[in-house]
Please model this.
Amino acid sequence: MKKLDLLTPVGIILGLVTMLFAVFINADMGSVIFFVQIASFLIVVGGLAAALLINFSIQEIKLLPRVTREAFHYEEHNLTQLIDTFVTLATKARREGLLALEAGLEEVDDPFIKKGVMLAVDGIEPDVIKDIMMAEVVAMEERHQKGRLLYEKAGEYAPSWGMVGTLIGLVLMLQELQDPTSLGPNMALALITTLYGTVLANLIFLPIASKLEQKTENEVFVKQIVVEGVIGVQSGQNPKILEEKLSAFAKKNKKEEMIKETEELVNEAQ
Model:
């Protein structure tokens, strides 16, 4: 069951509030209002929308609302409960045979588990079951990648369109060089567009793309456990051995995640 992920909106709001606070403590109200420029915003958003329309097909653009909803929701994966499910299935299979598993599938909510168990019940070879299930995992990864690519490209294009707006502002500023008093305000106005593009990219688009990538990795990991569990049930593994195997698989993944996070921290420090 998917739940609302409060960290995404909280992070966005916190970033905006932090920037506004920094502006308030260093400028008067008139300067704060200056940061709101409709023309600059339209250049960034309009140019970004045009670039995405050129880059993607209409079918891919239609994925944007659904992909956005995914960024604001998360699905809890109880690995202990998942492992217990396969231990129960393995126990029943050893006692009553694989055919007996079909009757108990009504209690299983995950369609991916149901599909794997049904393949096992039908007597499909373990290698074939693994190929079929992993093909579905690969297809899911590709589908998620297409949706995530929208945000990744938006994160690339937004700063560039901010720079385009800045160049437009500089051209307009150069037309008024005869008035030195206007150079400062016009330069500030030109830079506002770059600010908008950079904020949109680094506060919204790229962080959401990264979050979607992590969600995909977590889902792939859970499905890999399911595949190993189905193969274990189909091959008649001892329930205790299967439990140890799946638990070790989960611990190995957590260890790899910790190593990856440590390497990222070291690289950032350097």
About this structure: DSSP finds ten helices and two strands in the chain.
